[in-house]
């Protein structure tokens, strides 16, 4: 956060925190994670023991379980080669638990479609999420999750929602509209290329989240209100 300069304009009472001091490819360390709150799924990373329940679990950050009672989720509107998009749901699933690499280990071993809603359905996460604010001023329609300038467009939109599923469905439609405008297939029909190598971009995680009761997926039931600023 200091590298971005954000710390310079944050109010002094706002502090930066994280469950662990630095990123780890292993992702099985428990420092900063709560052993009492986890999502268990029968898939493990290559080299991890399937018989070890620790390797089958993703534990929730103690920041979420012990330090806060509510949170505001701040995603960015962008494409993701394994999950299809990273908006509200994936921002929570892959930002609040450990051992997430197992969800998209290789281009043909990808379980983001069910991993994401399974994590977000944990009560300690779903019950504390009160608002989702998505930055779509500049958004990325392909080549994610990393930044690729040639796929960034001036969307000039901020999204505010209490429903992460409705937000993600609305954001997905915006990204697909931009892809159509530049002659690309919608994410759900896209094929691998040099900038997005995964076999299937699993945007179905949004619909599955709706089926799990995490929000509204049906466009006819989503209340979208637009405010245009000069």
General description of the model:
The protein is of the alpha/beta class and 230 residues long. The protein has a domain of 152 residues. It is 22% helix and 22% strand. The strands form three sheets. Strands 3, 4, 5, 8 and 9 form a five-stranded mixed sheet that branches. It has a two-stranded antiparallel sheet with strand order 1-2. A two-stranded antiparallel ribbon has the order 6-7. Helix 3 runs parallel beside helix 6. It is globular and about 50 Å long.
Topology:
Elements: E1 33-40, E2 57-61, H1 62-67, E3 71-73, E4 76-80, E5 84-86, H2 88-93, E6 104-106, E7 109-110, H3 112-120, H4 123-126, E8 129-140, E9 152-161, H5 164-181, H6 204-211
Parallel strand pairs: 3-8, 4-8
Antiparallel strand pairs: 1-2, 4-5, 6-7, 8-9
Helix pairs in contact: 3-6
In round numbers, the mean pLDDT is 95
Helical fraction equals 10-25%
Broad structural category? alpha/beta
Percent in strands: 15-25%
Quick one: how many beta strands? 9
**What is the string of helix and strand elements?**
EEHEEEHEEHHEEHH
Low-confidence stretches: none
Provide the gyration radius in Å. 18 Å
The number of helical segments is 6
The N- and C-terminal alpha carbons lie at a distance of 31 Å
The largest sheet is: 5 strands, mixed
Shape: globular
